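Quick illustration, no need to memorize.
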Amino acid sequence: MASNKNAVTTAVLLCVVLSLTGCTALFGEPATIRCSSETRSDGEAVISGFTATGHDESVYLVVPAIPEQLDRFNVSRIAVYDRSGDLEYDIPVREDSFSMNKMEVSQVSDGEIPFVVNIGEAPQHSWYRVVVYNGSGGTVQTTTGGFNCYSDKSLSP
């Protein structure tokens, strides 16, 4: 019976020590995801570049758009291509969807509409070319750049 008490005491002490040392991610706490990105744009300013952000262990590509510019240039879609030129994501842009797009993202300025795509669990590291197309299929803006996202879980052994 004493060995059971010792095992329970040891387990409790281990949990306390691990939680005090910041290792709570081992016990189901959500991972902290950190991202950095850099972009460069050519053309009209319809989108404010793009960035990546983490939420609930997933990484999201965020493309902030300026509503007035979407209307002005009759934007119909935002296409995301990978480094080899393959289409990764095709985001339809319709005015009736603006009101549904209320995700709060710290990288989006007041008045901008965030177009968000889940790109998977961290870690994620990639390079994209984001192209804004008008209703006639013409290119309005091209933004290129890359990002790195990792989580505290992806860094642990």
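The chain is about 20% helix and 45% strand.
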